Structure to design on (252 residues):
C-alpha cells in the first residue's frame, strides 16, 4: 500500500502529471478567473511542449550525470552491487520466465564487465511489488546463465533505491564489506549514491548509459514521447533526491 501511495503521489508531481493538473485547474477557473485560467493553460501547454523536446530533455538529464570515470581503476572496492530496474513479468519469449527491463539489462551487462575486470563478488538487489516475484531472481538468472557471472548475494525484499541500500547493508555488513562498486544508470547515480552512502557504504560510482551531445537539428525541438519520458525521469530523480534529504533530516 505504501508503494502504491508513494508512486501515485509522485505521478502527479512529474510530467505530464502536473501539466494535467494545471490544465484541469485552468478549466475550473475559466468562468470566474478567465485571465488567470488562460495564463495557467498557456504555461501548462508551453511546459508540455518544452519538456517533450529532445533538447530540453537532454539538458535535464545531462545535469544529473557526473563526468564519466573508470571504476575499475580503483581496485579497493570489496563488492559489486547491481541495482534492479524493473522486469517484464512472465515474458512469453522466454517461456514465461521474468525478464529484466532494458535498463536492468544494461546494468547487468556492465556489472558483468566489472566482474571480469576486477573479480569482485556480486550482489544484485531488487525486490517485488504488488506480490510479484522479486526481480533479483531474474537478475541473478541472467548474470549466471547468460553472462556466466556468479552471484554471491541476491537481495530480494527492497522496493525502491533507499531499501536497496539499507537491505544490501544488512547482507554485506555481515561480511565486513563497506566499500562497493555501485552499478546503475548515470542519471540515477546521484540518488543511488546518496542512499548507499547514507546507509554507511563507501561508494565507487560505476555508472552506465551516459547521454551524449550531438549536433543540434530541427528534430531537437520537435516534441516526442521519448523526450517526455526522459524529462519525467529527470524530474523523478530531482524530487527523489530532495525527498531523501528530507527523510534523512527527519531521521527516517
Amino acid at each position: 500500500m505504501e508503494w502504491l501511495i508513494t508512486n501515485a503521489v509522485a505521478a502527479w508531481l512529474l510530467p505530464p502529471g502536473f501539466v494535467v493538473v494545471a490544465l484541469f485547474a485552468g478549466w475550473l477557473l475559466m468562468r470566474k478567473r478567465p485571465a488567470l485560467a488562460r495564463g495557467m493553460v498557456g504555461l501548462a501547454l508551453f511546459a508540455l511542449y518544452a519538456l517533450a523536446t529532445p533538447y530540453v530533455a537532454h539538458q535535464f538529464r545531462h545535469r544529473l550525470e557526473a563526468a564519466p570515470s573508470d571504476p575499475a581503476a580503483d581496485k579497493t572496492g570489496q563488492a559489486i552491487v547491481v541495482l534492479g530496474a524493473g522486469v517484464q513479468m512472465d515474458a512469453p519469449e522466454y517461456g514465461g520466465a521474468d525478464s529484466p527491463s532494458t535498463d536492468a539489462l544494461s546494468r547487468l551487462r556492465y556489472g558483468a564487465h566489472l566482474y571480469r575486470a576486477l573479480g569482485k563478488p556480486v550482489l544484485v538487489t531488487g525486490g517485488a511489488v504488488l506480490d510479484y516475484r522479486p526481480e533479483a531472481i531474474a537478475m541473478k538468472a541472467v548474470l549466471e546463465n547468460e553472462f556466466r557471472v556468479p552471484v554471491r548475494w541476491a537481495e530480494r525484499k527492497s522496493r525502491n533505491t533507499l531499501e536497496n541500500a539499507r537491505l544490501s547493508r544488512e547482507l554485506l555488513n555481515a561480511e565486513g564489506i563497506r566499500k562497493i562498486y555501485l552499478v546503475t544508470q548515470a542519471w540515477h547515480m546521484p540518488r543511488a549514491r546518496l542512499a548507499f552512502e547514507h546507509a554507511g557504504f563507501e561508494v565507487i560510482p560505476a555508472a552506465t548509459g551516459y547521454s551524449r551531445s550531438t549536433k543540434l537539428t530541427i528534430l531537437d525541438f520537435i516534441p516526442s514521447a521519448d523526450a517526455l519520458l526522459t524529462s519525467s525521469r529527470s524530474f523523478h530523480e530531482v524530487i527523489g533526491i530532495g525527498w531523501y534529504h528530507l527523510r534523512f533530516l527527519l531521521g527516517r
Q: What stands out?
A: Strands lie at 79-83, 87-91, 97-100, 122-125, 153-155, 179-185, 202-208.
